[in-house]
Amino acid sequence: MILVTGGAGFIGANFILDWLRLHDEPVLNLDKLTYAGNPESLASLAGDARHVFVQGDIGDRALVDRLLAAHRPRAIVNFAAESHVDRSIHGPEDFIQTNVVGTFHLLEAARAWWMALPAAEQAAFRFLHVSTDEVYGSLGPGDAPFTETTPFAPNSPYSASKAASDHLVRAYHHTYGLPVLTTNCSNNYGPLQFPEKLIPLMILNATRGQPLPIYGDGMNVRDWLYVSDHCAAIRTVLDRGQVGETYNVGGWNEMPNIAIVNTVCALLDEMRPDPAGPHARLLTYVKDRPGHDRRYAIDARKIDRELGWKPAETFESGIRKTVRWYLDNMQWVERVASGEYRNWLDRNYADRSAT
Question: Is the N or C terminus of the chain more exposed, i.e. has fewer CB atoms within 10 Å?
Fold first, then answer.
């Protein structure tokens, strides 16, 4: 069995679904079920004995201790995190509590569990920490992409909290010998993503005929990674990664936000034409968010060279699959995009008049 934390979130849910599609090894899924944790994403696993769900917090040491003792996982894959930059600007405390303090408590529980294992099980155990390229800071237009040795320079409360968690994971390996692995990924997209992130937000607003808010000039650049490719990379690192190493995971798809949104609009024009006209008519430039990093780019050659992983999807194939999934699952979108989420949108965009 493996323990997956944050397995009801976007990437965690995709990871579990892919894992159980490819493996019979059971998954213990620990998720706090905050606003972005959605059990409905795992509805297809109802009744599947290979998926054991527990609602709880990685910061609850007593709970994690009990789960480790009862289920004896051979690995922990830690997705649990607060992950939205805008939310971290409005309320950084939750990010410190989950991403830093929560990771600390999880590491402490894992260390105590691991140290008590027989030697053979100790050698086989892994703690895989899933992180972000945002810990590296921002790049200029001509700067080389981030590598695993790029110095950390986080610029938002979110990225600072993830950088802190990365440092803790590294320290637990070097100080205590805990067999850790870390992955730093670029922007994920694909099915089951909560509609506060760029691509699902644009799809949802466009289908409603609502404005498509573009921060600043729309030229902030990100590298885009299809979520199933990311999940495959994590499985590869868990299986063959060198203990103590970090692996950058990217899609080799560096594109500005405005190009992403125009691509989404063009696909919606093709798949679900709007009688009112092209969806790009809804583009609305709004006030930029504070400290908005200009460019991220991932050099993913290490994981390719050492472990043989590379993305299977191009951006063109991945974004087409993504738009199609959202159009085919609008009931799921509408259910998660209600209540607290609507209140969040009102708070985040209230002071961002069109420019």
Answer: C
